[in-house]
Structure formats: C-alpha cells, structure tokens
Design brief:
Layout lengths: L20 H18 L16 H40 L5 H4 L6
Helix pairs in contact: 1-2
Length: 109
C-alpha cells in the first residue's frame, strides 16, 4: 500500500508542555554542570592537590566526566519519556468511544 493512499488520523494538537518528575530530573541533570562551572568561587583554590595536580584543574576535569554521565542519563530518560508518551497517545486513540449509556449514568432517556 502506498503512503499516498494511507489514511492517517489527524495529529494531536500540541498543548502546553507537561511538567513531570522525570522532566524535572532531566532538567537538573542538564543544569548541574553549568551551575558547578559558573560558581567559580567553589573551586578557585589550589588545595587539595591530587597526584600533583591543583584542585582547580582536577575539579574541572572531573566535571567533564560527570557532565558526560549526566547528559547521557538525561538522554536516556528523555527517550524513555518520549516512548511512554507515544505509547499513551496510541492507546488513547485505539480506545473505543464511550457508549451513550455510560455517559448518562445508565439511565435511559
């Protein structure tokens, strides 16, 4: 069957963005490295020294690895959230419409 002859349901209207706990965690994962690096006063010192490297340098290098892990975590959570939303939308579109009986509480007119 060609794509031109397929009948597709109309796309759902985009409403306001939904804030969920997963999305808050994603935002925190992406925001943490910026806050850590922009708060220079927290790491503008030389002590403690780690294998001869001043704190200022190894702290920033540690955040490169931490940022990578947090970004990967945010990506996985985002993909999971998008799959769950698509699955929820497809289940709602496959649900049969409610009968007249269930809408008026089972009372016949």
């Amino acid at each position: 069957m060609s794509e031109a002859s397929e009948v597709r349901p109309p796309a759902p209207e985009a409403g306001p963005p939904t804030v969920t706990p997963v999305r808050v965690v994603i935002a925190l994962c992406l925001l943490a490295p910026f806050v850590a690096m922009l708060w220079v006063g927290s790491y503008a010192k030389t002590d403690p020294v780690f294998i001869g490297i001043p704190f200022f340098y190894w702290y920033q290098m540690a955040w490169v690895l931490i940022s990578t892990a947090l970004t990967a975590t945010a990506y996985v959570l985002w993909q999971r959230d998008q799959r769950a939303r698509k699955a929820g939308e497809s289940q709602q579109s496959q649900r049969p419409p409610e009968s007249q009986e269930s809408q008026d509480g089972g009372v016949s007119k």
